[in-house]
Write a structure and sequence with these properties.
Blueprint: H1 45-57, H2 74-80
The protein binds zinc ion.
């Protein structure tokens, strides 16, 4: 797993570079899990923490519900991404 493919907000393994291969070039694509636009909400640490707390307040609801894997588990994702709530 490449950490550059992990959503900085929710820890989803996005499967593609969220901020480019160099980590400097946001794709401006949208995380299907938390709804972050790579390059906007995740551009600063404050932004990441704010967006994450909003998302967690909503119990980690998927932004694109149809994309949610049936075996997805919020705690597992947070744990594997090293995110503490
Ligand atoms: Zn996300």
């Amino acid at each position: 797993m490449d950490s550059k493919m992990i959503c900085k907000v929710c820890g989803l393994d996005y499967g593609d570079y969220t901020w480019g291969k160099d980590g400097q070039t946001p794709s401006f694509e949208i995380c299907p899990c938390c709804g972050t636009t790579f390059g906007y909400e995740d551009a600063t640490t404050d932004g990441i923490l704010r967006k994450r707390s909003d998302w967690l307040e909503g119990n980690g609801k998927w932004f694109m519900a149809k994309e949610q894997p049936s075996d997805w588990d919020l705690e597992t994702q947070l744990k594997s991404a090293g995110i503490k709530r």
